[in-house]
Design goal:
- The chain is α+β, with helices and mostly antiparallel strands.
- It has 10 helices and 8 strands.
- It has 2 domains: 175 residues, no CATH class; 76 residues, Pdz3 Domain.
- 48% of the residues lie in helices and 14% in strands.
- The protein is elongated and about 60 Å long.
Amino acid sequence: MTLQIARFCTEDQDDGPRAAADVVAPARHHRAPHRHRAARQHDVVAMGDQLKIADQTMTHSTKQRHLTNRQSMRAMFVVVVSLLACGVAPVLALAAQLPSLFRGVVVADSPLGVRVVSVEEASQAYLADLRPEDLIVRIQETEIHSIDEFATLSSALKGRAVSTAVVVFRNGIPHELVLHLYSYPILREWGIAFVPDHDVRFAEASVGLAYWSRLGRGYEDAHNVVEALNAYLNGLHNVPTDVTTTLKVSELFLQRSQQHLATGALPDGISSLRQAVAMLERLFDYSLTDDQLQIVKDHLQDTRRILHDVTMAPHAGMTAHRSPP
């Protein structure tokens, strides 16, 4: 299994903006078009300018008053987040065999569309607010008139679609829902869109966390950053509030960013940095120990160093990069 970064941009793309319903095929990596060389170089130059300004601002603030450890890291976030604003917003997806978006949904024929008979609780469809007695009349841009049409389209999407728009009638009123395979616990807690392994389930969340953490440590020992990141994110899917796992995930995002930048994949490198920083910033809502605060600080310093290296070598990340087929 491999991790894929699907970039959702709203400008500078030859094919226009990408929607959340983009398809991820297991045999091929979906990649948003890279921006032109000049545009990417402009981003790097802009980051360099912001780095100088933000560093000066933080240095001045530190001299003006003594900052606590937590306050100083807040100031550092101003530096890092201002730099990463030049990047692209990533969405993390798992490029592997994907389950059906309608897993756990039972339907029957209806004069209008198909009628939802039942929805398995805790299924992705249930979490997306699909309910019994809803009438499904459209999936994506295709109108649904029968069970056969529903089954055909559902089968076509299985293993390919990460998300899809669904129009239903409920009590005579149309509603548009978005069914997706992303982990709701991670999405709500950390704002990271990650497709977990939906086929591996645990009766106790702590057992699931322990299982995936063991796998993650094994992949780390084998120096496989991608699979280690996937394993720890699956663990976080089971226990999204586990600080230790969150710190490990942010660390692996930083390592993944360095791998991308080393191969000239600047957009992917910046995307991974943004993922790491997004998680670190939300950790400030938790009661962290001194050791955990130090880890956060170390990760932020690593992020600044990576960004500094990129801005000091603006041509290093300009090489066009393609994922292997």
